Amino acid sequence: MSAHVQRHWILFRLLASIHYVPCWYDSCGNYFVIRRSNLAALVVGLLVSGCYYYHDFFWQQHFLSALAPFTLGVAVIELFTFSTIPLVMLLNGLIQRQRMTQLFNVLFGDDLLLDSYDTDDRTGCSYYCSLLKLLFAAMVVSVGSTGLHYSTFTHTVFIFSILVRCFGMLSYLFIYHLCVTRIQIRMGQLHNLLRQQEQHIEVHLDYFFARFELYSGQIEQINRCLFPPIMLIFVLVLVELSYTAYEWFYLITLGHPDVENFDTKAEWLNSQFWQALYVNMLVLVVPCCDSTWTEVRSIDD
Q: Could you give phi then psi for residue 25, rounded to 5 degrees?
């Protein structure tokens, strides 16, 4: 198994089992392949996505009917976006399955010469794990604040469904982060190749240009293969930020949270915690894109 895949093989297998990643890693051949089991994963993913729509717009009707008009509008947009993101991930994986398979094979495949020029592992695995811990902590706090008795069972299921979808979005963003970071690592290795083989660079010149064109060209492939669902996640974050701005404006203006939406300050704080999680997810995307582009430009210049 490739060392680069081995670090995250559980995540790849988990996302492949629900078709967010439309290919499996073949440990014997050390490459990603599309199998018939991916079709079964697609069917499972579609069923789960259908359950999300049913849960959000039918099972939660009593919750939506109790909201104020402005909050109801925001909630409908939020739930629709939240329900659509998993479906878009599935359909995007179906449409881009060939390109994504080729992309993963290029980025996570072994390159004996470049791999001999070690660079620091700059993946944000620790940050990803920290966000996962925060997600589970948020669920425990949310469920614990209402209890587990029958009258709050619907609320508990709602929190759990949010947790599962947040985990899916966070994991998808982390896959994007891994792909972008792999380009950054390869560019760093090419930079080390230039520096350490400066006296004999003409021997490796063709290899250098071929690898630079190969890996820099994957930037466009990453955007084509992975960015559509991420754009929808950005929309969700903007909706959450808009609602957060409204809640803080209400708090600053009147000196207390919106009593129509929150019975206690604890509920308001819990809501702010969840909304902050959405924004923190973007930390997996924005910094790595900036640093990778800087690395590419430094070699190109």
A: -90, 125
Q: Is the dihedral of CA 124, 130, 135, 138 positive or negative?
A: negative
- pTM of this prediction exceeds 0.85: yes
| Residue 115 neighbours by CB distance under 10 Å | 15
Report the distance separating Cα 33 and Cα 24, nearest Å: 5
Return the domain boundaries, the chain.
3-298
Q: Which two tokens stand for residue 92?
A: 């995007």
Q: With contact defined as beta carbons under 8 Å apart, do 181 and 288 qualify?
A: yes
The three-state DSSP-derived secondary structure of the chain is: CCHHHHCCHHHHHHHHHCCCCCCEEECCCCEEECCCHHHHHHHHHHHHHHHHHHHHHHHCHHHHHCCCHHHHHHHHHHHHHHHHHHHHHHHHHHHCHHHHHHHHHHHHCCCHHHHCCCCCCCCCHHHHHHHHHHHHHHHHHHHHHHCCCHHHHHHHHHHHHHHHHHHHHHHHHHHHHHHHHHHHHHHHHHHHHHHHCHHHHHHHHHHHHHHHHHHHHHHHHHHHHHHHHHHHHHHHHHHHHHHHHHHHHHHHHHCCCCCCCCCCHHHHHHHHHHHHHHHHHHHHCHHHHHHHHHHHHHHHC
> What is the residue type of 5?
V
Task: Report the Cα 260 to chain-centroid distance in Å.
Answer: 33
pLDDT, tens digit (0-9, with 9 covering 90-100), for 194-248: 777 666 667 777 888 888 899 989 999 999 999 889 999 988 888 888 888 888 8
